[in-house]
Amino acid sequence: YVSLWLQSQASAAFGLDIHPGAEIGAGVIFDHGTGIVIGETAKVGDGCTFLHGVTLGGTGNDSGDRHPKVGKHVLIGAGSSILGNIQIGDGAKIGAGSVVLKPIPHGATAVGAPAKIIGIAKEKDLGSSVGAGLNSVLPKGLSSLDTSRRDHGSVAKSQNFAEFINPQKSPSTINQHTHAVHRIS
């Protein structure tokens, strides 16, 4: 019962509610953790990023194992709700305000209410960075990925991040405010 008391105190102090029975992987980032709710049977893989207001909850129709299973390196946008005993694949990206009721495959990008898959993420380690917008999504149905650009390690080798995401533009035409967000280890 100490764990339930501790969870209750954390909920009151920080504005987030993570059930003590939930399994959370290593290196998970709760960016602006206010409003995050994670249910008892939820599982979150290593290296995920959750923005504020994310819910991993049940639908109310099931008992027992009733919460989502989130893979590794998943990015979940602000205000998103993932409901039911469903799987979110490794490297998936869930857009802000989405309501996910069905499984999302590895590397897919899903948005909307109810969420629909709009593309395939280019990054391997999506949960480790936030923010290149739709520049980091291949259109749905694209059958092959350019693996030379899929390796996120290439960002460090590139002169700047903007060249990496759009190599067709010359450095002089790239917005000077484009930048990369790096995870702090």
What is the gist of this entry?
The protein is 14% helix and 22% strand. With 185 residues, the protein is an alpha/beta fold.
Fold and architecture overview:
With 185 residues, the chain is of the alpha/beta class. The chain has four helices and 16 strands. The strands form three sheets. The chain has a seven-stranded mixed β-sheet, with no helix packed on it. The longest helix is centred in the first third of the chain and has 13 residues, at 2-14. Residues 142-185 have low confidence and may be disordered.
Q: What is the fold's blueprint, element by element?
A:
Elements: H1 2-14, E1 17-18, E2 23-24, E3 29-30, E4 37-38, E5 43-44, E6 49-50, E7 55-57, E8 69-70, E9 75-76, E10 81-83, E11 87-88, E12 93-94, E13 99-100, E14 108-111, E15 116-121, E16 137-139, H2 147-150, H3 154-157, H4 161-165
